[in-house]
């Protein structure tokens, strides 16, 4: 279970929101993100990864190998420096290995083979680096990591309609101001009545081999995608839930079919207009035989791409 995964995976994730703001746009006063040309709602890949990170942090509590690198108020260069300290590498002294140079080119910065040691340590220690990758070339410098899992923006299946709500305050806070000027309309809240969002993801076995991403990590990732909204509640986000997670597992590390052809087999269609609930959608999941028509079977009659519905 500790060996890196050796299969490629592609997946389709459906999640929805009701009377909430799934991902506010800071460039538009925190309005829900929307494609201005089509009216479809958007949720960034960064937003989805943030929820995965938060879930893993709650699930594992920072235990060895499952700490989170990108977290709130973190000082990233400090974590990189502490990694070298844990390896016993003093970045204020000349490199121990002469192959790495006679002296340091940058004070407090790793160089040569030290960088690879630092990169490997960061991958072993932090789940999100091992999963999504990270830029570690600042500060003490532990290079760059390209993670095995990449996720697209989520786009709503149909158009969404952002709504604006006035917020009123009935209690004053300050004794130095009159009550009248502190109560009444004091802010705005933005929501969409309902939206079903679809995102695509890709998992590379070759990159998993580079970071050490293993089956335990993968199982935790699936669990995080299914349950990430259960501990991410807030008044602003309304009701959000993962509705469907469809996984395509390839027989080989490099893959046995084009991802876009597999994704095209998964369809979501509204049965009413307007849509106000997940029950108003029909999601079509392809059969194994439909997948085999694209990917084929191996010589021993085993499907080259297996389909699994996680939720």
Secondary-structure element string: EEEEHHHHEEEEEEHHEHEEHE
Structural class: alpha+beta
Which stretches of 5+ consecutive residues score pLDDT under 50? Answer: none
Question: Roughly how many Å is the radius of gyration?
Answer: 24 Å
Proportion in β-strands: 25-35%
What is the residue-averaged pLDDT? Answer: 94
Shape: flat
- Biggest pleated-sheet summary: 8 strands, antiparallel
Number of continuous helical runs? 8
Distance between the termini: 23 Å
Helix content: 25-40%
Number of strands: 14
InterPro entries: Cas7_Csh2/Csh2, CRISPR-assoc_prot_Cas7/Csd2
GO biological process, one term: maintenance of CRISPR repeat elements
Organism: Candidatus Brocadia sapporoensis
Protein name: Type I-C CRISPR-associated protein Cas7/Csd2
What does this structure look like?
This protein is α+β, with helices and mostly antiparallel strands. It has a domain at 9-61 and 146-309. It is built from 8 helices and 14 strands. It has helices at 45-60, 76-86, 113-125, 127-132, 205-211, 215-227, 259-263, 288-295, and strands spanning 9-20, 24-25, 31-32, 40-43, 133-135, 144-146, 149-151, 154-159, 163-169, 184-203, 239-250, 267-270, 281-284, 305-309. The longest helix has 16 residues, at 45-60. The model has no long low-confidence stretch (mean pLDDT 94). Pfam families: Cas_Cas7 (PF05107). This is Type I-C CRISPR-associated protein Cas7/Csd2. Residues 91-113 are annotated as: Disordered.
